[in-house]
Design a protein that fits this description.
Elements: H1 4-23, H2 31-54, E1 70-72, E2 75-76, H3 78-110
Antiparallel strand pairs: 1-2
Length: 111
Amino acid sequence: MGWLYLLLLIIGIVCMLLIDRRFRLFFWSDPAVALLITAVGTALFLVWDVVGIVAGVFLRGEGAIATGIILAPELPLEEPVFLVFLVLCTMIVFTGTARLLRVTSREERAR
């Protein structure tokens, strides 16, 4: 049961990528830019985490569903995977919303 959280995060990432593939919103629209945005976004969130850890704000909780693998003090293996999931979800929602707004705007102008 110690790998459940990591497994669920990976399943979530795969599901988001399937949505992305279906609608060509982010990675399937421009893979190079999407990879850059994902890497930079994840890195910025990791820096934020490290600052929070150093300040004593972020602490790792013990959980039966976590792997227990620690990358750095108070930074579990699941954290960077979660941050990739967070950036991916955010960008798919952002690009999907932008597309919907463009379509709605075009339909309004056509009336």
